Amino acid sequence: MRVVGLGPAGLDRLPAPVLELLFDQAVPLVLRTRHHPGAAELASRREVIGCDDLYESGEDFDTVYRSIADRVLALASGGPVTYAVPGSALVGERTVAILRGEATDLEMYPGESFLDLAFARVGLDPLARGVQVLDAQDLPKPLLLHLPTVFAQVDGRASLDAVRDALLALLPHDTPITRLADLGAPEESVTTLAIGQLRDHHAGLRVSFYLNVAAPGWPGLVQTNARLRAECPWDREQTHHSLAKHLLEEAYETIEAIEALPAEAPRGEADLPSYLDLEEELGDLLLQVVFHATLAAEAGVFGVEEVAESIRRKLVARHPHVFGDVEAETAEHVLANWDRLKREEKGRDSLLDGIPRSMPALARAHELQARASGVGFDWPDVDGVIAKVREEIGEVIEAAGDGDRELVAAEIGDLLFSVVNLARRLGVDPEQSLRTAADRFDRRFRVVEAAGDPAGMTLEEMDALWEAAKRDE
């Protein structure tokens, strides 16, 4: 079997030996598609076997390409056959990839790629800065634009929409992009327009786009932070310890933005203003991660890519039910596997190892109790927890009567710890619950203040205003 790339345009660009192969009437010629200048010319000058009918009957591209490969393999089982594809047989040709894996005695005549002409038209040396070539019909997520980028196979509305929407999520509407159409043919067109101006008619069977911008998104953030570290006086002065308070602050602000979302989010209708706030806060939090990684890179220890790869490996290792052959049918099974693997990885002696003392006290208490409960150290039912809360209240009252402040503080701690346990058993996040209660107090007391100076009111007057605010809520 011979596989021939027809190049980007007409047969006039092909060398004589390849033309002889294509016009060898003794060998059947299969065309992946007739919708190409060279293929159309061949079909007009000799008998060919087309595969365009398979595009019309296939459910998806994978099915189509499999069917085309099967047709070629069936013909090859009866003797020599030539299979011709647009462009280079080694660039973006999935049918050729199938044939290379399954056919024997395969002769390759790759042909000229549209990329050779594309690089020439835009003046790009692919070794100078590097280059990435992406299939518009299967864009990667995330889309990284840290290199000059060619979007190939923008052959219809769906692929054009995919490219435009992905780019507009990262770049301004007026960002220039170069359209490359019919390269190597007399009707060749190379034009530059704004991404926001892209319309359906800009797609085509032999259309690609070229984009070369300053890196946006993740690579751009990393590069911008590195430059600020080098050139901004404030950034230059920072250390891991000086940034710690900002990390904590941004984490709290992110939590606040999350709490503003509907309880069912991301299910239901998206609350766009709340999500925009969350986007901003996540960006501020992400900057803290990148900044600390930048400082660690200065120390010669690790950089942000190592941080990302480290957590990627951890996710794979701790999800053997996804990346391995372990079964986990429920969320509880997943958490149990996670905790077991985590203890094995870190060589911890206690279930309670790894719970930071710097956590908010309510959250730490909740996590300590949850870890212990995981091995059965827990009240058998909620009634036992309620009884314990009542017991702790009595001990607080008794300690207060004795006037021992240290004992009172200890008993208050025990009471709070028991209340956290009660919240956990009732399925309530105590940290969130207390924040919500604090928010309610904040709103209602502001109503009291709005009625006048609280310092000039009696307790009864303030209490009446408080109750009114409570009823209004």
Labels describing this entry:
single chain, 473 residues, alpha/beta, Helix Hairpins, 5-stranded parallel β-sheet, 19 helices, 9% strand, elongated
Tally of contiguous helical segments: 19
By oligomeric state, this entry counts as single chain
Under CATH, the topology of the largest domain can be stated as Cobalt-precorrin-4 Transmethylase, domain 1
Q: Which strand order does the major sheet show?
A: 3-2-4-1-5
Give average pLDDT, whole number.
Answer: 92
The string of secondary-structure elements, in order, is: EHEHEHHEHEHEEHEEEHHHHHHHHHHHH
> What is the general shape?
elongated
- Give helix % range: 40-55%
CATH architecture of the largest domain: 3-Layer(aba) Sandwich
For the record, the count of structural domains works out to 4
Specify the CATH class of the largest domain. Answer: Alpha Beta
Number of β-strand runs: 10
Provide the low-confidence segments as ranges: none
Describe this structure in words.
With 473 residues, the chain is of the alpha/beta class. The protein has 4 domains: 111 residues, Tetrapyrrole methylase, N-terminal domain (Cobalt-precorrin-4 Transmethylase, domain 1, 3-Layer(aba) Sandwich), CATH 3.40.1010; 98 residues, Tetrapyrrole methylase, C-terminal domain (Methyltransferase, Cobalt-precorrin-4 Transmethylase, Domain 2, 2-Layer Sandwich), CATH 3.30.950.10; 100 residues, MazG-like (Helix Hairpins), CATH 1.10.287.1080; 36 residues, no CATH class. Helices cover 55% and strands 9% of the residues. The chain is built from 19 helices and 10 strands. It has a 5-stranded parallel beta sheet, with helices on one face. Strands 6-7-10-8-9 form a 5-stranded mixed beta sheet, with helices on one face. Helix 4 crosses helix 5 and helix 15 packs across helix 17. The longest helix is centred in the middle third of the chain and has 27 residues. The model has no long low-confidence stretch (mean pLDDT 92).
